[in-house]
Amino acid sequence: MDKVKVGVAGYGTIGQRLADGVALQGDMELVGVADLAPTLSIRALKERGMPYDLYLVEGAERAQFDALDIPVAGSFDGLIGKVDIMLDSSPGGVGLKNKTLYEQKGVKAIFQGGEKNEVADVFFHGYANYEKGLGANYLKLTSCNTTGLIRTVDCLDRECGGLRKVAITIIRRVADPGDYHRGLTNALKIDKAPSHQAVDLMTIMPHVEATGILVHTPVTHGHIITVLASGKHKISKDMALEAFARQPRTRIVSIDEGFLGNASLFRYARDLGNPRGDMYEVALWSDSIVESGDDIMYAISIPQEAVTIPETMDGIRAAMRMQATREEGTQATNKYLGIGKWRK
Amino acid sequence: MDKVKVGVAGYGTIGQRLADGVALQGDMELVGVADLAPTLSIRALKERGMPYDLYLVEGAERAQFDALDIPVAGSFDGLIGKVDIMLDSSPGGVGLKNKTLYEQKGVKAIFQGGEKNEVADVFFHGYANYEKGLGANYLKLTSCNTTGLIRTVDCLDRECGGLRKVAITIIRRVADPGDYHRGLTNALKIDKAPSHQAVDLMTIMPHVEATGILVHTPVTHGHIITVLASGKHKISKDMALEAFARQPRTRIVSIDEGFLGNASLFRYARDLGNPRGDMYEVALWSDSIVESGDDIMYAISIPQEAVTIPETMDGIRAAMRMQATREEGTQATNKYLGIGKWRK
Amino acid sequence: MDKVKVGVAGYGTIGQRLADGVALQGDMELVGVADLAPTLSIRALKERGMPYDLYLVEGAERAQFDALDIPVAGSFDGLIGKVDIMLDSSPGGVGLKNKTLYEQKGVKAIFQGGEKNEVADVFFHGYANYEKGLGANYLKLTSCNTTGLIRTVDCLDRECGGLRKVAITIIRRVADPGDYHRGLTNALKIDKAPSHQAVDLMTIMPHVEATGILVHTPVTHGHIITVLASGKHKISKDMALEAFARQPRTRIVSIDEGFLGNASLFRYARDLGNPRGDMYEVALWSDSIVESGDDIMYAISIPQEAVTIPETMDGIRAAMRMQATREEGTQATNKYLGIGKWRK
Amino acid sequence: MDKVKVGVAGYGTIGQRLADGVALQGDMELVGVADLAPTLSIRALKERGMPYDLYLVEGAERAQFDALDIPVAGSFDGLIGKVDIMLDSSPGGVGLKNKTLYEQKGVKAIFQGGEKNEVADVFFHGYANYEKGLGANYLKLTSCNTTGLIRTVDCLDRECGGLRKVAITIIRRVADPGDYHRGLTNALKIDKAPSHQAVDLMTIMPHVEATGILVHTPVTHGHIITVLASGKHKISKDMALEAFARQPRTRIVSIDEGFLGNASLFRYARDLGNPRGDMYEVALWSDSIVESGDDIMYAISIPQEAVTIPETMDGIRAAMRMQATREEGTQATNKYLGIGKWRK
To answer: Which C-chain residues 218-257 have CB contacts (< 8 A) with chain A?
Structure first.
């Protein structure tokens, strides 16, 4: 079978990781990436020797790139013309504009969480509704928090006899490492409830009632979410632990091992020598799991920069009908990304 | 009636505020404060002109104080001999040692949350179990988080037909403003669950099952707690709001008014010209309240430096039998501290 | 002599403190403050019982204030008509617009550092160029960093035989306590050199060559500046210490006393019970002073919220010719603000 | 020529990078690394498939490693017996104890900056005093700040006619990314002057007078240092820029390119796909360079985790007499580490 040809629009924090992710899939080919200006990320691409071809979107000034000796492979239109599917990680709102171009060329696309739901036919999560994405032209991924959250909620739902409702508290980082665009200094900031992540979860898993409160906190190394899940039947700590152990993209860690918080996970990913110090798995603390009556409470950590990459690969597989089922699709992604290698 | 004579041991973050609190009670007299070394707080007391008499605990070097022209009124023993009740806010563990001195002199004492429960006869909260403290010799206050949390949980329990269980997420500051002793930089840190605050809540309110997860966050302006409360009957958002409006030490705020997070509360208290920029009330965001099935979820902010002062005043009232009931005791405290003035 | 009548435009972080400062001057009368919207600061003014009359600037919606039972004394025009001089701490740029109103009414005004220099006749500092402000109609204050910096540089210049040049490094806070408008998380940010504070210093003290580098740091409790000062003759550590000891708005502190950094100063000001936890003095660490060849190096901490208040009071004194000399003007300000009380 | 056999003691933040650095040197062989406990870094080594052999130091509990299926190659003694030279990055103080073992086996060693100077025969910097290290048995590296600082100061000293003195301001991070051991929240902390880095610089470059002030700041992504350098003759901005351009381990960056601060450098290193997101070069902002009379002022950023790796490799080359001169030694290190590839 021919490899599926993939392009990436927007070579920023997410776009770089999407490109790296596609490059690792044995059954896909990364045709190139597109961007507007010689950002630090593009300068780094140049310094790395241009492992990916660069295309320029409309509005880019070619002279800026020439002045820096950054090779340009062509225009955004040219890139779209060469691919089967685009991964769009442009700044929020631009994806919707790009969609017109994709439609003109008859190219499928997957949008990231920053776009409005209306941009896509299906709001997608590899584990929760893979089948809905089969053959779809336009998918939208859940945001980083929702993607990681649903991995664990979908897992409990399937493995523990069905869930009725969840109530979440999201303690979210306000900036990525190296980010100067947003900030918060010595302050917690609260959003109006319910948080959009809870609402989004209900869109993907309509049979579960969800609500929650989100608090911004001045850190950069990932979000922590606490989840209170109410099942149709009592869920014990042991039941939950066994269920989570079967979720490939959920890494079970503990304070005793030395995982003291979100920053330990970032350090560990760097110590692993992972590219960019990234981690695809959410971490779930075994020593955070407690029973609350018949309900179960636990905490996870979300590596916000990389967590949506696997589900986006799942999305390509579904949209292109590369694998027909949730199990096959996610397993193929996991294999190529090396997810689960840590398990004995 | 003679004023009740009160002393304060340990003139640190809490001790200063206890002294200020007692000085405001029209039916109490602050005899003096005791400490060990010429800390910044003691130097500030000197610069203020010694509004409170200073006594030295064992181990203090008198010459250090003399060299700085800081007047000394006597020894710790001397202070104990002049009071009816001591408020002990010494560093953790010292209170237990001091207790021997209190017992020798037949003086009552109230210990802060840093001491072990065993130090006291009663683990006390002004609203939740005032009557248990009546006439007791040794009380221990709940910690700052637990004190503020119980205000709202006790309120729902009394006003909404009884609670069955609560599940909390504590997002706690790691240092006070101006604190160099503890810290955390760009990292969230998680504790083993359940958090001690949930366990403490059950000690004070044994009929409510409580559990929770605590996450440390690198900020200084107070904790934020989210609470998921399950009643014996459904609790609607309106029911909860009406109940909270009747809790005098709970200030209802909203994001729309400009209270964006814990730091807004600190700023507001400074704008009010409150001494030290302190606030006695917990803040409860009306726009954080959401229903989760029959349960109710909400978020509060805890001003960690001052929140336990009113309940400590309540404790004096109970231990000294100044007022016989929860209503009378807490109302007297509120009147002298000016709590509730903001209400129309 | 009649008291000088003063109004304040803009009741934000600086405006509140200007109002408090004027209220403390025995020879001035605070007529009122003006603002646009019921901010948290205005709500706090209401909760305090309206110690200052409130006037509304153009564009304010009276109904918003009425709905909150906030008394309004009149319009901005009305306020201007009642005063001799306005202190303008409006958001940057608005002061220039307001100036037209002041000119129409023949009212003097002092603008804060956020306005462009062109707004005023004189760029003013109470210690460095008081005489230039005598009788002037429009003064502009130096910014918080420059105000504090000049106190120490002017002092060395006068007391140590004249300065040739200074090179400064400014480590600046990015937000005030309680500020959600600006931020920076886990990052230092550098500005293009030279910093405007160095340039401003040369405008005020044209005989001293100044340059410097500014680095933003994610803290809220004040700036720290290191200064390398080159005199016409060698300046020893002892000479510098003796000079600084004669600068009334410079508080000499040390690490040994417990002043570990900028946050210690904030804590100390709160411990002093100062309104809002403010401090007017810059702090200068005696144990930071080191000799570099014939030059002298030292570090100061700038309490950014309150530091410009005394020099603004000086400005009123100069513009209104209340005192004829630098010595008399600054001494009057210091007396009313209680500056220097800490000295033995 | 046989490859030089190298071992690493202490597989923490620095030890991991030393091991990686040695593994990249074509003329060295990494025999193995030694540590005490199954830390996160050791667990990551296991998950990576044990690219480096692990030896256990005295006090390690073998059973802990067996329980985690972590292969152990032997004892610390065994490792020492197989190498020509040890790189010791043990916790401060342990290196001195280890030195006895090295002496017994007649093995050379290089200690990191945390050890006291007395541990070594020579206090070493690859560019400033390579020749002093030739054939030495025990070297001690300068600390991260001093290492990066000396690169630029030595460069100016050699290229601009000699330096007389430098005055530095160090704005230092308090923790590494992922570090929970140290912290500081919303506070700057100042050390007694002069900073040890200035003193250390004079030890390495005794002909230059150095002093400075150090301020701790709550960030994790590297230190920023401002330097005021006084030459024997005037140093202009152009002279400085040309000099720095010839320093291979100093990367010239600018705010206009997008390097806004220390965090931009960390992000860029991650974007480059560098292992662990590390960077060996210090960054020097071209738009920070300003003239102060005849002196020159500039700012650099220090990547604290990796900056000492190249100079440690230089140290091996000097101690083992692999290259006889500063130029040859540092060039060999640079070639193997890929330093300078970014230059056109």
So the answer is: 218-220
Residue A323 near residue A296 (C-beta atoms within 8 A): no
Cα–Cα distance, A169 to A186 (Å, whole number)? 20
Give pTM, 2 decimals.
0.97
Q: Which of A149-163, D67-81, D180-194 has the lowest mean pLDDT?
A: D180-194
Is C174 a residue whose pLDDT tops 80? yes
Instruction: Answer whether D179 touches B (CB < 8 Å).
Output: yes
Q: Which residues of C touch B176 (CB under 8 A)?
A: 267
pLDDT tens digits, one per residue of D112-130: 988 888 899 999 999 999 9
**Cβ-defined contact of D185 to B179 (cutoff 8 Å):** yes
User: Has residue A344 got a pLDDT over 60?
Assistant: no
Domain A4-142+308-337 fold: Rossmann fold (3.40.50)
How many alpha carbons lie under 13 Å from residue C329 in its C-beta half-sphere?
Answer: 28
Flag whether residue A295 sits within 8 Å of chain B, measured between CB atoms.
Answer: yes
* Portions of chain C given CATH number 3.30.360.10: 144-302
CB D258 within 8 A of CB A40: yes
A188 in reach of chain D (CB within 8 A): no
Minimum Cα–Cα distance from D178: chain B residue: B187
Q: Quote the tokens at residue A324.
A: 């027909």
pLDDT in tens, A74-121: 999 999 999 999 999 999 889 999 999 999 999 999 999 888 888 999
Going through chain D in order, the beta strands assigned E by DSSP cover 4-9, 28-35, 54-56, 74-75, 85-88, 108-111, 122-124, 138-141, 163-173, 189-190, 209-217, 223-231, 250-253, 282-285, 290-292, 295-302
| Answer CATH for B4-142+307-337 from 3.40.50.720, 3.40.50.300, 3.30.420.270, 3.40.50.11260 | 3.40.50.720
Task: Sort out which chain A residues have CB atoms less than 8 A from C184's CB and list them.
Answer: 180, 183, 185
Whether the CB of B92 is below 8 Å from some CB of chain D: the reply is no
Q: Which residues of C touch B41 (CB under 8 A)?
A: 271
Q: What is the pLDDT of residues C37-68, one digit of tens each?
A: 999 999 999 999 999 999 999 999 999 999 99
Q: Could you say which of 1.10.3080.10, 2.40.50.100, 3.30.360.10, 3.40.190.10 is the CATH number of the domain covering B144-302?
A: 3.30.360.10
How far is it, in rounded angstroms, from Cα D328 to Cα D317? Answer: 9
d(CA A153, CA B338): 47
Angstrom distances, CA of residue D29 to CA of A180, B125, D136, D141, D328? 41, 66, 20, 21, 19
Gap from A172 CA to chain C (nearest CA, Å): 13
Minimum distance, in Å, between the CA of residue C205 and any CA atom of chain B:
34
Q: What is the pLDDT of residues B36-45, one digit of tens each?
A: 999 999 999 9
Structural tokens at position D312: 């440690």
The two three-digit tokens of residue A82, written as one number: 């060469």
Which residue in the block uniquely carries the two structure tokens 């101006």? B178
Question: Are A258 and D43 an interchain contact pair (Cβ–Cβ within 8 Å)?
Answer: yes
Q: Is B144 an active-site residue?
A: yes
In chain D, ranges of CATH 3.40.50.720 domains? 4-142+307-337
E strand or H helix that includes residue C44: helix C40-47
Contact A291, A236 (CB under 8 A): yes
Contacts of D218 in chain B (CB under 8 A): 183, 185-186, 218
**Residue A11's closest chain D neighbor by CA?**
D271
Output the pLDDT for position D1.
67
| A153-156 contacts, C-beta under 8 A, 24 or more apart | A153/A201, A153/A205, A153/A208, A153/A227, A153/A229, A154/A125, A154/A127, A154/A128, A154/A205, A155/A127, A155/A243, A155/A244, A155/A246, A155/A247, A155/A250, A156/A229, A156/A231, A156/A235, A156/A240, A156/A243, A156/A244, A156/A296
